[in-house]
Amino acid sequence: MAKKIEFLYPEYTNIYGESYNLEYLKRCNKEINVIETHVGDTPRFITGGADMVYIGCMTEDKQEKTIELLMPYRNFIIHAIQCGMIFLVTGNALEIFGTRIIGDDVMSDENVDIRGLSIFDYKSVRHMREMRHNSQYIGNFDGMIMLGHRSQYSFTYGEFENSFIKIYKGIGMNPDTDKEGVHVKNFFGTYSLGPYLILNPPFTKYLLRLLGLKDNLAFENEIMEAYQYRLEELRRTI
To answer: pTM for the whole thing?
Structure first.
């Protein structure tokens, strides 16, 4: 049975090549169809037309616009998460699901205080007058070794009772925690950027099984070899 994955606002949320996460899933299984929901469109998960929702990294000025687009559907998002719909959220897109985004403005010396969707109880703090933080991590989720790369001006703060990944090399949601991302039922959020599923083939297999599909990967031997090589490099350099 065909599975539909909704890519929310690709004109905003594809600045680090996030669309390749979905392109790779399509190559893994021909039963996967990707539906793009553009600015102004009604999200398909509202009408039952999606099995999974994906939203990727965006520029800081697009965060507030994306929150405005999704705020009318806040209760639908909460209900969808509670019902077990799959969400994959990467980069600073995870910040819009918190309570607030505060800190330095993008274009001026003024500070911002943006109300988030308040799906989860955490807040994000921007430091755009400082140097961008770049780092990589190695962590664990459900017995799987997870790899990630971050490049960001902001950090997120909260209790993180429902974190996605436990970091053992690198940092988590901020430099003072080893908890990274958000995991509630089938909602997965991470600060990691770009083609996350290509970098983490064990998790990609996990995601395919969640979708009720076979977990065969496209170019499986090559991608697993690259994963092992990257893991050893990160163990040596982080």
So the answer is: 0.95
